[in-house]
Amino acid sequence: MTEVKDGVIYYVMKDGYVKSGDMTSSRRLFNEMRFRTVVTWTIIIHGYCNNKDVASWNDMINGYALNGDVSAALDLFLAMLREVKPDEVTILAVLSACNHIAV
């Protein structure tokens, strides 16, 4: 039962750090967690995307591409264009997504 309580505490604290924009502290807590779930991974990824830096956008686009979700990758790329300038890594991630288009 202790692990569950610890997990909930980490989850709440990590979420609070993400919401306040303190990704350094959030990532530190994430790295300390013994057990990571889909929820904890989602929070950390969402936090990085909310910071709107190019690397965060690239990670998300590439993640969708690697999992074959072409529509989500391209939709995210279009959203990115409205907020930040893509770099070379972005283009590679988009090309990777396009590589998964079924013909």
TrEMBL record:
InterPro entries: PPR_At4g14850-like_plant (IPR046960), PPR_rpt (IPR002885), TPR-like_helical_dom_sf (IPR011990). The keyword Repeat applies. PPR repeats lie at residues 53-83. Keywords: Repeat. It comes from the Eukaryota. PROSITE patterns: PPR. GO terms for biological process: RNA modification. GO terms for molecular function: RNA binding. PANTHER family: PENTATRICOPEPTIDE REPEAT-CONTAINING PROTEIN. This is Pentatricopeptide repeat-containing protein. It comes from Brassica carinata.
